[in-house]
Amino acid sequence: MVKSLIAAAGAALVVSTVLAQGPPAGTPPAQTPPVQTAPAQPPAAPGPQRGRGGGETFPAQQRPPGDPAVIARGKGLYGVNCVFCHGPDLRGGQLNGPNLLRSQLVLSDQNGELIIPIVRGARADKGMPPLPLPDDDIKAIAEYIHSEWAKSPRQGMPPPGAAPPELNVLVGDAAAGRTYFEAKCASCHSAAGDMAGIATRMPDPKALQNFWVSGGSVGGRGRGAAGRGAAPNAPNPRAVTATVTLPTGQKVEGRLVRIDDFLVTLALADGTIRSFTRTGPKPRVDVRDPLEPHRALLTVYTDKDMHDVTAFLATLKCS
What we know:
It is built from eleven helices and five strands; from the N terminus they run αααααααααβββββαα. By secondary structure, the protein is an alpha+beta fold. Among the domains are: 54-150, Cytochrome c-like domain (Cytochrome Bc1 Complex, Chain D, domain 2); 174-217 and 294-313; 241-288, SH3 type barrels (Roll), CATH 2.30.30. It has a five-stranded antiparallel beta sheet with strand order 4-3-2-1-5. Strand 1 (241-245) and strand 2 form a beta hairpin. Helix 7 (174-184) crosses helix 11 (303-313). The protein is flat. The N and C termini lie far apart (139 Å).
């Protein structure tokens, strides 16, 4: 037993000595197994960005800033073509247009590519008539709208700033307004006919001015001149209509729902919807827009003209 213990102790001593001296000369070094490391993790998605004052920003505020000259031009065009429906702060105007600060379409638009079809008539059936604006003007308006989005402190809120002052629009010359009315409006309207008593029916001068400038379509989106109290199926005298002349000579007439370079869609009197493929000028399409004269004048009116006509119309009261 004692001899066994002594032998074991001697063996242990030999092993310890060999380990301390290292391997004999010429022996290749032992290979160290590679250290396993965890795979690299992809970078985390950025969280909400912080805007001025510590508030979170949203996609419209992360767009690169637009050209100030284009924004300024778009602001002017918006004031002429859009403010009556969408309001001076983009949240809806006198003609019940939608709030552009809460529009997913506007938020998704980059350079007017989604807004152009709307202005061209893609939503004519929902009360947004086509406007005769070139693409560059629509893109400028879109750039202005995006610039206002970018200044909003929270998504959907108007940009900071004082509320626009309540303007007194009844400051014109009624006599000059009568002259302008007789020169520009009398072919369609009459002071003794459809305009008789309009100031009694609409005593608020601001509403009166918005009414006549827009062509009278203040009944709400999609209702047009039919307005409140009209029969559900009553024809709308201000609806945009079109006549499609087919190669056979047959003519199809109806309310214009949509028109572009490839398709025209009409709502017929019997309630059916018909669409026609377009190839260049065929089939022939004749569009009749009763409000086109009003829209054409929007680029011609001066502030004085508008105030003068409003002052004249304010004198047309029921006796």
